[in-house]
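Intended use. Records like the one below are meant for learning the mapping from a protein sequence to its folded structure. Do not use them to infer anything beyond what is encoded.
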Amino acid sequence: MKKILTFVFACTALLSVSAADTFFRVDMDARKDKVVLKPEASEKMNATPIGWIKDVDARKYTITSWSKKKVSGTEWEDYKIVFVPATSGSIALSIGGQWAKKPEDRQWLLVNKIELNDKLYPNGDFKKTWKTKTGQVMPNGAWLSKGAKYLPTAGEKGTPAILVNHDNRLYITMKVEGGKKYELEFEVKAANPNDFK
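Structure written out for the chain above:
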């Protein structure tokens, strides 16, 4: 019995390390072009102006959006952000995970695909890439910060995916038209970075 219990506890620990559930998060910042952003209700995502920006008036150019529940470590799920920009301009997207007090508790996610208004976002499948001078692989039209990683076969059905968390993000600059409704959809899954070393 003792051996069986030890085995069960070991398996439970292994599963909990393999892909801890976490929250998905996207921050949007249009302060550079002063584009006022109006978030709309979404089934799986909360959305508000970024509250930690000290200039209260500047918050209207921003949105922080996070999943209403933890992202599964076993199933790929789609998360949608809906917004309307008041004017045309550029928005900086910062895609990652939720903050936690201890850096080691800032869990990781895989981003498999990005769609815009029900169509693939330009290079939203991450199939086209480029290399930095240091040899880091980046998806075309995007930038990876710190330890965020391009993984050529970690996505659903062996497709490319990007490994991110709160401190290690996928950055994209998106051009928008004033008054047009935008629906950004992300396919994500919680992940363990140790599986991709």
